[in-house]
Write a structure and sequence with these properties.
By secondary structure, the chain is mainly α. The protein has a single domain, classed as Aldolase class I (TIM Barrel), CATH 3.20.20. 53% of the residues lie in helices and 6% in strands. Strands 1-2 form a two-stranded parallel ribbon. The longest helix has 19 residues. 15% of the residues are buried.
């Protein structure tokens, strides 16, 4: 929490929470926003490309989420599986739309 407040005092509009899953997941973000509702934090690390995971982060107050290895799995990258990547990205975009509605 100290680092988040320091970032805001330094002029940051958004902060990155990483690894968000290890910090306590959506419950951590919700707990931070309870006394500090102005906090706009983008969780990364621990965000899954599923409707349930995404919805829980958005309901906790995340304005956006970040994904790395969950969106670009090692196998897909190493095998240059662009069709698989295209499918995973399309599925994730649809999950984001559903989670935000």
């Amino acid at each position: 929490m100290t680092e988040i407040l320091a970032a805001y005092r330094a002029g940051c509009d958004l902060v990155k929470l990483f690894p968000a899953g290890s910090l306590g997941g959506p419950g951590f973000l919700k707990a931070v926003r309870a006394p500090c509702p102005w906090v706009r934090a983008i969780p990364t690390g621990g965000v899954d490309p599923t409707v349930d995971s995404l919805r829980s982060w958005y309901q906790a107050g995340a304005p956006a989420v970040g994904m790395g290895s969950k969106l670009f799995p090692k196998r897909v990258v190493e095998e240059r599986d662009f069709d698989g990547l295209r499918t995973l990205v399309a599925t994730t975009v649809a999950a984001v739309a559903e989670a935000r509605s």
